[in-house]
């Protein structure tokens, strides 16, 4: 009997000790290192500081955030959003319908109410007008139906913000901007956040860090979370890094302007048939992500396989016709050696079809552009709308269901001004002391519930 009691006591002690080790603790400062700008439209800082009217569930459906409910009227041309009461910005200012309208007017060139005076436009909004119909009632109207507006409003570019008297941008999210220290964007916990105080005291985000420096800092404990590019994901796993990987969320695509050499649709079709997606996938990106000729990944649309990804060099040459002497510049805003290799491989593909392709010089507008577009949506219809807007493709979805989405995407891609190539994942290597880190559906770290082991 005593022996059983002793064993039970030991088991209870071990269980309690394990629970104490895994239970989140408040406190500590987490350091993140990234390649680019943390405050970009899809950057990690915006998600930590700003909230949208809506958020996305794991299935891609819109769920309440700053808005607790919404109704649609006039065949989806009018939406009424009821705001969550008692929410305050990080400077203590109450969240009101007027504040939301002012935020939308500041970010949208075409979403202003008639009496608004707005700063320089920053993003394109799908509506015509937004106004306050009551203290906590925001109305958004459009000349065309917006059936997926709640899903679109979950994108980080529609995060609600205001500037305090000192000019600092304030949101309602779990962290607030506290300044720059030693080159890092400093975020501190917002204790009165409507979602509750985060476990971390602060987050330091070091921007524009090279891949070598990121991995070195992670290995010696100077960083807690660093980026892992798709082409290095296999290497990171071989080095036994603790890596969290999203689904395919970044679309690598060529864009061809319908002018000059590519004014003729047959020239654009020739270029589309000349690209070798398999070589990019197998060699450059080490079989990460998926080959695509679709604006949506297979996991979102369910029909991406219907778009042919096969290369047909003979037909590309036939469409191209005779030899072409005038050089065409291929450029990209994407940095890094890997994207340079991808661009050079595509230039070789097009050369083989009869085009004279040269890498564009810095500062010279390229005739062909290699772009990487981030997809935040997991709802299929909202995702189609997001990608059509991102590439400025003149197409709309008529009807409901997968067939309607496929027809809209097919119509948009028929012009061959956009040539989808690969869908790539986002990945992050995580240090040993980080606990409870999750990724959002679009591959960004969610830090509101994360904690640090040993924090007090």
Description:
The protein is α+β, with helices and mostly antiparallel strands and 456 residues long. It has 3 domains: 29-44 and 173-224 and 431-452, Periplasmic binding protein-like II (D-Maltodextrin-Binding Protein, domain 2, 3-Layer(aba) Sandwich); 51-169, Dipeptide-binding Protein, Domain 1 (Dipeptide-binding Protein, domain 1); 249-424, Dipeptide-binding Protein, domain 3 (Roll). Helix content is 28%, strand content 25%. The chain has helices spanning 2-22, 44-49, 97-107, 149-152, 211-219, 233-238, 265-274, 277-284, 298-301, 313-320, 337-352, 380-390, 402-413; strands spanning 29-33, 54-56, 62-64, 67-73, 78-83, 129-134, 137-141, 162-163, 169-170, 175-181, 184-189, 202-206, 225-228, 243-255, 290-291, 328-332, 357-359, 368-374, 418-430, 434-435, 438-439, 445-446, 451-452. A hairpin with a 4-residue loop joins β4 (67-73) and β5 (78-83). The longest helix is centred in the N-terminal third of the chain and has 21 residues, at 2-22. The protein is globular. The model is unreliable at 10-20 and 111-121 (pLDDT under 50).
């Amino acid at each position: 009997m005593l022996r059983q009691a002793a064993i039970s006591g030991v088991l209870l002690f071990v269980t309690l000790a394990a629970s104490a080790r895994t239970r989140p603790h408040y406190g500590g400062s987490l350091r993140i290192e990234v390649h680019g700008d943390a405050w970009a439209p899809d950057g990690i800082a915006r998600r930590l500081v700003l909230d949208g009217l809506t958020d996305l569930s794991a299935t891609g459906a819109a769920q309440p955030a700053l808005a607790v409910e919404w109704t649609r009227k006039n065949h989806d041309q009018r939406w009424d959003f009821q705001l969550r009461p008692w929410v305050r910005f990080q400077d203590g200012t109450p969240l009101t319908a007027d504040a939301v309208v002012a935020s939308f007017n500041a970010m949208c060139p075409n979403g202003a109410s008639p009496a608004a005076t707005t700063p320089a436009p920053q993003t394109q909004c799908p509506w015509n007008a937004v106004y306050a119909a009551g203290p906590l009632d925001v109305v958004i109207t459009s000349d065309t139906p917006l059936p997926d507006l709640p899903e679109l409003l979950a994108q980080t570019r529609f995060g609600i913000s205001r500037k305090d008297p000192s000019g600092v941008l304030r949101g309602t999210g779990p962290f607030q901007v506290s300044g720059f220290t030693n080159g890092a964007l400093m975020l501190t916990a917002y204790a009165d956040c409507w979602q509750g105080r985060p476990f971390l005291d602060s987050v330091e985000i070091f921007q524009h860090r090279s891949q070598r420096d990121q991995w070195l800092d992670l290995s010696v404990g100077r960083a807690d979370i660093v980026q892992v590019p798709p082409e290095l994901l296999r290497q990171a796993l071989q080095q036994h890094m603790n890596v969290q990987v999203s689904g395919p969320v970044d679309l690598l695509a060529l864009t061809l302007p319908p002018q000059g050499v590519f004014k003729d649709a047959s020239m654009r079709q020739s270029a589309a048939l000349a690209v070798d997606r398999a070589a990019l996938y197998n060699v450059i990106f080490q079989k990460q992500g998926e080959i695509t000729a679709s604006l949506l990944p297979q996991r979102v649309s369910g029909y991406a396989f219907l778009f042919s990804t096969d290369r047909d060099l003979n037909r590309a040459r036939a469409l191209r016709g005779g030899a072409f002497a005038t050089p065409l510049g291929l450029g990209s805003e994407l940095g890094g050696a890997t994207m340079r290799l991808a661009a050079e491989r595509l230039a070789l593909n097009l050369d083989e079809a009869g085009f004279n392709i040269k890498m564009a010089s810095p500062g010279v507008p390229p005739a062909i552009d290699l772009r990487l577009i981030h997809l935040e949506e997991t709802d299929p219809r909202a995702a189609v709308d997001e990608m059509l807007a991102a590439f400025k493709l003149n197409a709309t979805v008529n009807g409901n269901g997968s067939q309607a989405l496929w027809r809209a995407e097919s119509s948009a891609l028929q012009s061959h001004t956009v040539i989808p190539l690969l869908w790539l994942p986002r990945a992050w290597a995580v240090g040993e002391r980080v606990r409870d880190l999750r990724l959002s559906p679009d591959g960004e770290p969610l830090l509101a519930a994360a904690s640090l082991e040993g924090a007090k």
